[in-house]
Amino acid sequence: MELKLVLISTLLVHFCYCNSQKEGNECINANAKYCGECIQAGDRCGWCTDPNFLKQGETVSTRCDELQSLMKRGCHATMIENPRGQQKFLSNKTVTNRKKGAEAKLKPEDITQIQPQKLSLTLRSGEPQSFDLKFKRAEDYPIDLYYLMDLSYSMKDDLENVKNLGTSLMLEMEKITSDFRIGFGSFVEKTVMPYISTTPAKVLNPCTGDNCTSPFSYKNVLKLTSDGKKFNTLVGQQHISGNLDSPEGGFDAIMQVAVCGEQIGWRNVTRLLVFSTDAGFHFAGDGKLGGIVLPNDGKCHLENNVYTMSHYYDYPSIAHLVQKLSDNNIQTIFAVTEEFQPVYQELKNLIPKSAVGTLSANSSNVINLIIDAYNSLSSEVILENSKLPEGVTIAYTSRCKNGVVSEGENGRKCSNISIGDEVMFTISVTSKGCPRQGKPETIKIKPLGFTEEVAITLNFICDCECHKEGIKNSQLCHFGNGTYECGACKCNEGRVGRQCECSSNDVATEDTDQTCRKDNSTDICSNNGDCVCGTCECKKRDNPDERYSGQYCECDNFNCDRSGNKLCGGHGRCECRVCICDSEWTGSACDCSLSDRDCKASNEQICNGRGTCECGTCKCTDPKFQGPTCEICPTCPGVCTEHKECVQCRAFGTGERKDTCERDCSYFKLIKVKDRDKLPQPSGSSYPMMHCKERDANDCWFYFTYAVNNNTDKEVHVVDTLDCPTGPDIIPIVAGVVAGIVLIGLALLLIWKLLMIIHDRREFAKFEKEKMNAKWDTGENPIYKSAVTTVVNPKYEGK
Q1: What's the CA gap between 471 and 324, in Å, rounded?
Q2: What domains are defined for the chain?
Q3: Fewer CB in 10 Å around end: N or C, the chain?
Q4: pLDDT of 62 over the 90 cut
């Protein structure tokens, strides 16, 4: 039963080891037929170009392996193809460091907030290429702000406050930047039923009792300008309009503001869009109510600064808006009334780099709202990248203010950034395999809401350098049936074999199989390989260190004798199932040392003159001696005393050596037992053993045995409890003393009481006697007067 369990556990360990090797060695699992395939399997894989590297029976794919394994198998490092990735900075201008009010005023395109700006990465499959991206928020950076306002009837009082917004906002923004421009646009709703009334009178004046302008979808009233007074003038000329439903057509207006950059006048600076409304919004699909089914095309349709296709295209979707706002680096500020705060908060969560502010009923707080929202948006930087090529992944690690380090999705952003602060991102780009075309690709990384970006050109290593030196139709490949490259033949289509010597149609024929049978046996390639073109190609093992070889795959390097659970005892190599021992070793498992240095004692004698040296181990002629050089005598007098202190400190933590126990007493293996009966007995042991009984400083006895087993390991079995002499039982003694004192006290009290009773009785009897003998005379006190007065009623006749 024990043998069966050992075999099962051994098989399980071997199975787990093989599986881990199989999963771990991606190079062998790739089964690469040429160098390019090999290096794409992983960054640890190399290809041996040595023409004489392969042994008989090994397949071409065994040229592909991990570097250490290839060198161990005899491939020189200079013959291994192992190209590595690299990076090159093409534009690396340092970030701008200037203060507000500087004499030299820079153009927006001359200000740098991100470094580097352009680089090239050469990617090897599985090998990440990392670089640092620096971001510094520049001081006095130009700002373009476009104010987009809902001019439906409910915003009438708000329009009055916005009419003076231009100059007031200019004064506030001068505290942040000296280069500020402002623009204005307005929106109402699509000009079709049921969003507005299409009766002629309502089209001219949709309001009842007020003079309103005709409904419109979106108007660009004022292109971005640095003239605040012009803003006030043009906005002052605007009039309220009206519509029928509560949600407004603001999404149409946002889309046009985002994509009509030329008409709006956007520069490559910080772009802010303030969206002011007191209502909800229509989005994609709502246009069907008005018979509009064409999806929004995301293009500019402004004619004379008026959106002309509102009746033709549906409202844009939220995702469409997110894409266009991001593409055009526009940060959105939603200035909405408190009633619609929850709606726009949810919208903000879907639109990166956007903010929501609560607009007062008449928009009187709009300037403070814009300033607060701008500070909130500009204090956070979030990196995004363009679409990645197939098989390419990117990872971010941020190092923000105060040493905060984040990875994963949080590694894309840093918060609480003030003007002049510098933060760093480590960006790692990895490719798995090679894209189908293998051509260079370009990706871009930029901070959301900023126009600056990093352009990264990705070049892919799809083949080895030796591929360029390949000889097409080489004579080395069976009369030109393949290309000789990287030390091996890459066969033309329809040809197989190590030298492309066979046609794929003739691979498995009876004639070719015959040459793959050893001694005319029935086994093809010893059942350890496949017959290809009359030549055995041996199978691969799950463990990359184990290989079949030989003309008929009859040899292997893993079925040799083992010693100490090591193949060939760890002192030789296995070739064709026979151990080839290192020098100074012999035996079928290379487990017999020819050297006698391990048998020499400190006195330079072989086995202390008490034995012979066999295979590097002393065989003691006197059975009472043991140890590597027959120096130990467990049953000799003095053994117990010699080891007493070490046994005491290790078993009980006491004794003279308790402070140096770990250093001085680790030379034996300690085994604790419960009682003396559990100690091993000399009669049941195959090696000499000494029973010991020693006393400690507290007069306690402890029992142990000392022996040196057949493996020359010192063993001590010790009883884990001390045998101490039993002292007096204090509690009964104390209880007895207390009880004795109490009893004596009670006895004394009783005696005293008895004596007092006897004394009292004697005294009483004496008193009685004297009383009886006493004589008394009777006399009357002359002074005494009776307290009783007797009065006789004269009328009383005694009746």
Answers
A1: 52
A2: 24-83 (3.30.1680.10), 86-99+107-138+382-460 (2.60.40.1510), 143-378 (3.40.50.410), 562-593 (2.10.25.10), 595-635 (2.10.25.10), 639-719 (4.10.1240.30)
A3: C
A4: no
